[in-house]
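pasting for ref
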Amino acid sequence: MELFKKTDPLVKIFLEKYGMNLLSIPREDISVGDLYVYNTNNKAMSTKGSIVFFLTPKPKIPKLTIGASMADVTATMTKEIDFNIGLNLVSGFLEKFGVGSLFGNIKAAYEAKGAKTIKFNFPNATKDSVDAMEMGQNLIKTKPIPHHPFYSKDNRYFLVMAVARASAFAITVQDKSKNNADIDLSAMNQKIVETKAKIDKDNNSAITFNGSKNLGFAVELQELSYDGEEKTIKLNPANVDTTLKGGTHKGKAAIIKKQPGLEEPFINIE
């Protein structure tokens, strides 16, 4: 069972409505104006960095719209996916919320209930974004810094224009009979009181992890390019075909992998 498919109802919202990539690891330090550099020769993606350290003169990042509601995201859950595979995403949020030590307890508690599948959603998702036209206007007179180590005609550049964030995520776990698994949370909440996190459970046995950090978990990208002859910066929605190891993926978001052994910045969607 694949982790994510383009037909998944929640994934479709990100890809088709927002044109967003899901990050492989939720991050607190992801921001509008971050730039990913993709080397087409070795199929590797750099760690992100701010565009203001790549272009000259330094572009101004426009004022952001912070915390816009993503009601369609909060109201939608993923399809059921394999419990053990899906729990990897849960572990990323637990680590960032500072309660990663509970991962083993949660996994064991669900396994004792015969866990087979898991589905999840982001009950308080919001979006930070920038006016794309204003961002483009601020790039008109800029160009890559001469001799910048990350500049090459063989590289591709992806600029973060919006970030989806959440300080909570909810999961529903089912056994092989498709009954919701119910676990005891009292001991777990006692262990995490110092982290300012909390685990809640509703009447249907779904549990919600509430953390003190607002983590970025998806980004909207624009592909940035520089025309050396016209000496102009170009921005285009990242809806191009991107060739990966093992095939070509098509979709609104540019789905990019790193080399084996290196952290993949985005979740691979089949």
